[in-house]
Design brief:
Length: 145
């Protein structure tokens, strides 16, 4: 049985562990995850199944813009539609909060994520040189809602 539920501060340790398993370099610190969980403009959801919490999405509303801050699915649980399900939920939540478009950034070498986002209707807005702290370029992507 799978459940998607809103994340709470009690999920902090699990979310930080998921960040480590999902992202080699691109992970948030515990302080940043805590800040996002406590931020009234941010909303986080976890995907829970028989193996525990295996995926999460962190969203933020910035005026009329919904932003995907992070989307992570644990290795071993990928390519099962979990990311697509979380993205659909995220878009619905942000639309209900008044967002008219969704935005995200993705590493330029993350072909799998780029293909996912394009399949969901996101388009590249621009390339962002050295966007990440380790120097990797990113693509800024957008989808009207």
């Amino acid at each position: 049985m799978t459940v998607i539920r809103k994340a709470t501060l009690s999920d902090l340790e699990v979310l930080c562990s998921l960040e480590k398993h999902c992202f080699e370099k691109k992970r948030f610190s515990e302080d940043h995850v805590r800040w996002l969980l406590e931020n009234p403009d941010a909303t986080s959801y976890v995907y829970y199944n028989e193996d525990g919490i295996v995926a999460s999405i962190i969203l933020m509303r910035l005026g009329m813009i919904g932003k995907v801050v992070s989307l992570g699915v644990a290795p071993g649980h990928r390519r099962r539609g979990i990311a697509t399900e979380l993205m659909a939920l995220g878009e619905s939540v942000m639309r209900d909060r008044g967002a008219t478009s969704m935005h995200l950034e993705v590493g330029i070498t993350n072909d799998t994520a780029i293909m996912l986002y394009e399949s969901l209707g996101y388009e590249v807005v621009r390339e962002m040189p050295r966007y990440y702290s380790w120097g990797e370029d990113a693509l800024s992507m957008k989808k009207p809602m």
